[in-house]
User: Fold this.
Amino acid sequence: MYNPAFESMERSKKEELQINRLKTTVEKVYNNVEFYRNKFNELGITPQDINSLEDIQKLPFTKKQDLRDNYPFGLFAVSQEEVVRIHGSSGTSGKPTVVGYTQNDIDMWGEIIARSIVAAGGRKSDIFHNAYGYGLFTGGLGLHFGAEKLGAAVVPISGGNTDRQITLIQDFKPRGIAGTPSYVMNIAEKMVDMGLDPRETSLEYGIFGAEPWSEAMREKLEQTFNIKAVDIYGLSEVMGPGVAIECQEAQDGLHIQEDHFFVEVIDPETLQPVPEGQDGELVFTSLTKEAFPIIRYRTGDIASITRETCACGRTTVRMSRVKGRTDDMIILRGVNVFPSEIERVLLEVKGLAPNYQIHLLRKGTMDGAELHVEVDGQLYEEIAQDLNHETIMKMRKQIQHAMKNTCLVTMDVVFNVPKAIPRSEGKAIRVVDLRNSGAVGV
Ligand code: DLL
Assistant:
């Protein structure tokens, strides 16, 4: 453990720390951010009304639209002079949502990432290959400063330029790698194309996140590279990567860094808390951030939490994998489906590449969906490059049957030739909405 004083702190002590920090944060936003002061006034509350952790429910929620409405710096709680870094996330509507950090925020983030890398199996003596994108996106620089804080040697390769990534992995011999699971999987595919065996690299652990991924993808990454793969979660509005991380000992839920972030899980319809263990929307309140404190941020991410102590000894609340986003959820014939559930089905089918896309289409007056999959190079040769081959027909049936069992719905499956589905250097795009494009599907 990097910092047992916090990571395995007794719950009652932790809650005492949280309430004190929450009060300070609430006062700070009330005094320094007009947006929050107005919201509190509308609800008739003042910082003095917050005296217990339950009282957090009196506070207003914050949403992504609030960041957009206050673009670029309207939610900052310190003067420009104190801000040392600006990040953002791209989102769908042009302008990024902007967040800022003081030097203390950067130091705190570094400490949290150092904890996270240790939880994943990293050490000070490691060479650390960081394939998250550097730039406004928090992934690259977030992991970078934390790895340095730990004392590891960071290779700031960023995303893309896959040939170069492979050369540096072979030459520098890193123990750890970080990147989106889909992009690191692409690195493996490229290695195989080049006649290299990803299992032969020096890599021992991988830190994967920034997009939903499944247990099946974990197995695939672990087997492909012969590593331990852990899930890291975070979002720029709350800080960036490191809000939560799995430990490599248990790989059983992500430890939320509770001394800095308070978590709630709510029903996205009623906005009421859901019982522990039940899926709902994650809501975070920052407890120590200075430049960009955030109150009850609705993430749109669906997961559950548990307070049971983990086998690794950390006492922090743990969140499940993120199942998906409320806005990535597909509703097909009344059934809710997340892309990660479909990923689980696909990775069990032999002969498919670990890359797929779901296309949403309009079929007549009905909304429909098509699942685009890709055959792998070996199978493509075996079936003499014929996508109408009997083997493909059997695979289609297998996928549809498994989907029906797992996701309770099925959709048309479209087979593509190897490498036909676009690869991403960062977050994979799993759902493509073509409903207003005139596309009607096959
Ligand atoms: O993706 C921060 C990050 C960087 C996390 C590197 C992990 C590793 P944003 O660009 O603001 O920040 O996107 C945040 O990405 O609300 C989730 O929907 C999704 N996300 C992040 N981590 C995970 C994960 C970064 N482990 C949004 N599993 C979040 C599933 C994830 N989804």
Summary: DSSP finds twelve helices and 21 strands in the chain. Residues 233 and 244 are 5 Å apart (CA to CA). The first helix runs from residue 4 to 7.
